[in-house]
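queue> pop job 88
queue> type: inverse folding (structure -> sequence)
queue> payload:
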């Protein structure tokens, strides 16, 4: 008998930003697999069980959850933000593709959540108002040369860039190198937004120019939005500035 596996996005950390759909799925599931800080956000009942694991154990976590669901249980895998953005939805799909046939019979659904770049963007205006992309700076699953190539291509094409996983104790230098790459293409006046813990009590949002961007302003709880040459800052006196990217673009210069 096959069960159910739901991959749930809990949003950026503010309980008000968890979707009603996700809340219903949490109420229905019996076993919860995830990174401990994400599981700690859940107010579970005595009949619900959490199975915590380290942040780097995504694939093994997905396999354990699928194995339990294949036994007929109602299982949830939780992610912060949106599970389809550098998170558990892809790990579950990867496990199903390489796993036993019974895992393909599991009723699997992915429930979206507010991802970090959307939460940060909403706090400061509309920096994602035109074309944008998201790039993870983690080189755990891809080579750094590929990351640099994507940064240069995105900046050269005029995309606003949201940087995920910008820096950690194990990866202290990549963000600084990313700023160096982008400075070679973008004007130093390009707005850069450091958005840490958007929507949570320890939120910190800071707007700087690319020429002044300092990697020490970020940690793993930070999402960084780097504007395009079209992105603007609107000063508003005593009110916080707004950052936005116009809906239209001039196109490449000939």
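queue> result:
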């Amino acid at each position: 008998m096959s069960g159910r596996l739901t991959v749930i996005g809990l949003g950026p950390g503010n309980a008000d930003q968890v979707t009603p759909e996700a809340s219903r799925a949490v109420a229905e599931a019996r076993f919860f697999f995830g990174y401990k800080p994400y599981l700690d956000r859940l107010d579970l009942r005595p009949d619900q069980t959490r199975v915590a694991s380290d942040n780097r154990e995504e694939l093994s976590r997905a396999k354990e959850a699928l194995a339990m669901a294949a036994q007929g249980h109602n299982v949830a895998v939780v992610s912060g933000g949106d599970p389809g953005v550098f998170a558990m939805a892809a790990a579950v799909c990867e496990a199903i593709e390489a796993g036993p046939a019974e895992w393909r019979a599991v009723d699997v659904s992915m429930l979206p959540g507010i991802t970090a770049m959307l939460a940060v963007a909403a706090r400061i205006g509309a920096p994602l108002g035109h074309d944008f992309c998201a790039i993870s700076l983690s080189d755990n699953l891809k080579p750094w040369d590929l990351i640099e190539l994507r940064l240069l291509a995105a900046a050269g094409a005029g995309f606003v860039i949201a940087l995920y996983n910008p820096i950690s104790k194990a990866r202290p230098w990549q963000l600084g190198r990313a700023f160096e790459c982008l400075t070679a293409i973008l004007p130093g006046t390009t707005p850069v937004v450091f958005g840490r813990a958007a929507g949570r009590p320890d939120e910190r949002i800071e707007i700087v120019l690319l020429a002044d961007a300092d990697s020490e302003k970020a940690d793993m709880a930070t999402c960084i939005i780097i504007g395009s040459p079209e992105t603007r800052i609107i000063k508003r006196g005593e009110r916080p500035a707004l950052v936005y990217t116009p809906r239209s673009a001039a196109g490449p210069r000939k």
